[in-house]
Fold:
Amino acid sequence: MLGFLFLIEFALLGIEPVDRATWWLENALVFVGAVLLVSTYRRFPLSRVSYGCIFVFLSLHEIGCHYTYSLVPYDAFVELLFGWSLDDALGWQRNNFDRVIHFSYGLLLVYPMREVFLRIVDVRGFWGYALPLDLVMSTSMIYELIEWRAAVTFGGDLGTAYLGTQGDVWDAHWDMALASLGALVAMSLTLAVNRALQRDFNAEWADSFRVKRAEPEGEEALARMLHGR
Structure:
């Protein structure tokens, strides 16, 4: 159902976007993600919570793709509905839709990442919260590098529209910080719920810090492999 609803939104917002070239660039990773989700649905279905989080994030992202992030008329929409300016109320001096989406990236996608870590990597305790947070932070950094490389490669108005800094030299830093904050909020809430409801929470948390293999790695591991041990 969520996939069907997203396809409808994708089709509608794909009609005459503000900048078609930017729309293609912004949707490149969406196409990759969609293929990954569809191809793994039968062998590795995620929870409804995870699919719901992914759906909300992608739905918000498609709005940014249609208008380009720096031109999303969210303030005009709020003013039309409620008669007051969101930007004025919050003291925003720029179009902050892109920063809302970066925060949402961490807030909404860290839980699906946690589910993958729990079910495939089999992490437990502290690492079940720290590693998804770390993955959000690292992928946020990688995305900023992709934006930079794409902007340099395409240049001109297309590069500027895709980068979307709106003249802020700290834009990439804000984006990474907000994604990290969103993930921290989500993992903190998940931690609070699990601590309240999971009976073996304390034991699992303590066990996650227990040494599982006493033998050192590095040159010791290399020596063991060379001697067939």
Observations:
- Residues 2-209 form one domain.
